[in-house]
Structure formats: C-alpha cells, structure tokens
Amino acid sequence: MMAAELYRRIPALPKIDLHRHLEGSVRLTTLIDIALEYGIEMPEYDVETLRPFVQVMPDGLRTPQHFLSKFMTLRQFFRSPEVIQRVTAEAVADAAADRVVYLELRFTPAALSNIIRCDYRDVIEWVSQAAAAAAREHGIQVGLIVSMNRHESVEIGARVLEAARPFLGHGVVALDLAGNEQAFPAAPFADIFAQARADGFGITIHAGEWAGPESIHTAVYELGAERIGHGVRLIEDRALLSELVDRGIVLEVCPSSNLDSGVVSEWSYHPLPALCRQQVRTTINTDDPLVSNITLSQEIGRAVQHLGLTLDEVKRQMLHAAEAAFLPPPERSALAAWFDAKWERVLNGDESEIAVGTAYDPDR
Predict the structure, then answer these.
(1) What is the rounded distance in angstroms from the CA atom of residue 79 to the CA atom of residue 56?
(2) pTM, entire model
(3) CA-CA distance, 127 to 262, in Å (whole number)?
(4) What does the DSSP assignment read for 65-123?
(5) Which segments of 150-237 are extended strands (E)?
(6) Residue closest to 261 by CA, chosen among 111, 105, 72, 68
(7) How far apart are CA 110 and CA 147, in angstroms?
(8) Is position 209 annotated as part of the catalytic site?
(9) Which among 200, 205, 244, 341 is placed 20 to 30 Å from 54, CA to CA?
(10) Annotated catalytic residue within 209, 226, 313, 323
(11) CA distances for 118 relative to 81, 115, 124, 159, 192, angstroms
(12) Which of 214, 295, 290, 254 is closest to 11 using CA atoms?
C-alpha cells in the first residue's frame, strides 16, 4: 500500500484505546472557556499562549518532572461539576471522532476534586453520567477506570475504592494506581487492591515506565495487576518478560507519551517492536491526547513510520486490546470478532466504511 493511501486508511480504521487519562484529554479551547468563565488569570486568553503550559512542545524538555508539571496546571481548571461533565463528554466525543469504538477512560477523583473539595463519590457519579450520555450519543462503548496516586496517602486510596464500589458495573470497570513510581512504591497499596479484586474490579497498574522491571514485578505479584500501564521497561528483564508472556499480562503502551516523558530518548530506542517480537501482549494507546498533542490515529501512524510496525502488527495490538478489555468474557469475544471483520473491510478499501464507518453496538 502506498504511503499516502496508508495514511488515508488509518483514520478510518476502528480502534481501541485502553489507556487514556481524562485529565490529559481536555480541549485547549475548553480550557480557555473555563478560564474566562471562572476568572482564572492568564497572560492572554489565547490557545497558543496556553499551549506550552499544558502540552509538551517539540523543542521542550522531556523529563518525568516536566511531563507531570502539565497536570499541575490542568488541575486548576476543574472548577465545578459542570466543568467535569463537559470535559468528560468532550473526551468521549473526541475519541469517537477518531473512530475509537471501545475506550477505557481513567480519571483520578482526588485530582478532580482538588479545588471544589467535593466527595469522591460525587466526582465518579458526574463522570459516569457524562460518559454514558456521550457514549450513547456518539456510538462508542466506554468503560471507566478509577485511579489513585501512589504519591498520595493510602488513606486517600481507601476512600477512592470505597467511593467507586457503587459504580462497579455501572460505568466503572477497573481500579488503577498511577503517579511517581520512582519515588513512591506500590506495595503499600497492596491491601486496597486485594479488596478491589475481591469486589470484582479489573486491576491495571502504572509500572515499568519511569521505574524499572521491579516496579512491574510488584504490580503483578503484590497488587494482582492484569494489565500494566506502560510497562516498556519490561524489556530489561528477560526472566520477568518470559513470566508475563506465560501469564498473558497485557502492556498498555503509549509510545508518544514515552518520548514526551523521557522514558526513551528517541523513536529508534522505543522497545515496542522488540516486545512484540518476544510475544508480549502489547497494545497501543494515547495516554494524554492533550499533553502529547496526539490522536490514536496519529499514534498508529507514528508506530508505522518510526517503529516499523506493519498494519498487521498494529491490528494485533488492537486485538490484544479487545481481548484484554475489562468486559465479561463473552463481550470481549464479541468485540474482538466485530473488530477483526471491520478492520479488514476498511483495509481492503470498502469506501462506505472509509467514508463514514460504523459504530460498535455491543447489544447487536
């Protein structure tokens, strides 16, 4: 397939994103609207003025600290329930516009309630309601992952789990641990995640991004992770890699984010191709579309252009995602079968699919 035709097809292909943060998915124009409405002081109320404060720029620093600093700014914009619901609805709409048919959107109640000082349960309810309504409107299936930060207290984590329990099966599908893994280990949260597993939550843990393979080992063997957020440093430990292949643990890889946060210094060093060759069940995801200025279509294009993945290999990533979605097994199988057939029709040049696509309906 010629390059131009290939890049025309990618936006039309159905996609699955398992690792996308709500707080990193806000539209720049929405941030300007919020600033004006709530009197947030800015040098200029202009998208290009705001961009460097919330986005990793092409010539900017690429370190964990610089990457995380974008969220310190973004947290200042969550000023009301209406803002949280608007941002949620727009994140779902933007994913659907990029032909994402199944999205797992994660969010951190402690971050979203930082300014308005509301109960975590209220935040989860607002996000759940807005996501469900937007999913119906745009023909996309959305599962919500409730996240806590390892650099915050275990007590906060326990409150997050308690707040999330009523929503399990009603929008919420899983629990996540994120935050600074270099300075804050995951082990203190083991009891919380044992309770979550017993409750029926799916478990995904950020690990093996800024810290090494030992972080992944803790996530899997002490916290019971079924999936690993990022996990690219698994390549450094052959024995652990082999164990995770045998266990079928899935990595939620976010290549552009890995460059933007300094996990890898350039595309040629990214371990995704090597992980694929060693049969690790990897997936391709966006992480933070705003912060990295990325869509999933663009992420796939970069994986093809810079990492040398073929579209067959990209398709395998998406099928891994379907098979690892936090859904009941019959729904996973149905999603994977639908996705396989739809992908081939688009790739083989079905112009009706390329022009308008077809939303995935889990009830059909």
Answers:
(1) 24
(2) 0.94
(3) 30
(4) HHHHHHHHHHGGG--SHHHHHHHHHHHHHHHHHTTEEEEEEEE-HHHHTTTT---HHHH
(5) 172-178, 202-207, 227-230
(6) 68
(7) 9
(8) yes
(9) 205
(10) 209
(11) 9, 8, 11, 13, 22
(12) 295
Structure tokens given for 284: 């391709």
Residue 3 CA to residue 164 CA, distance in Å, equals 45
Domains of the chain: 17-27+84-349 (3.20.20.140)
> CA 75, CA 64: separation in Å to the nearest integer?
17
Rounded to 5 degrees, φ, ψ at 30 are: -70, -40
| Distance (Å, whole) CA 244 – CA 39 | 49
Tokens of 89: 């609805």
* CB atoms inside a 10 Å sphere around CB 351: 9
Q: What is the CA radius of gyration of the chain?
A: 19
Question: DSSP letters of 237-256?
Answer: -HHHHHHHHHHTPEEEE-HH
- Residue 186: name the closest of 209, 163, 166, 162 by CA: 209
Tens-level pLDDT at each residue, the chain (364 residues): 556 667 778 898 999 999 999 999 999 999 999 999 999 998 889 999 999 999 999 988 999 889 999 999 999 999 999 999 999 999 999 999 999 999 999 999 999 999 999 999 999 999 999 999 999 999 999 999 999 999 999 999 999 999 999 999 999 999 999 998 989 999 999 999 999 999 999 999 999 999 999 999 999 999 999 999 999 999 999 999 999 999 999 999 999 999 999 999 999 999 999 999 999 999 999 999 999 999 999 999 999 999 999 889 999 999 999 999 999 999 999 999 999 999 888 888 765 554 444 455 544 4
CA angle (279 as vertex; 202, 67 as ends), nearest 5: 60
Compute the distance between CA of residue 26 and CA of residue 39 in angstroms, rounded to an integer: 18
Task: Write the DSSP symbol of residue 155.
Answer: H
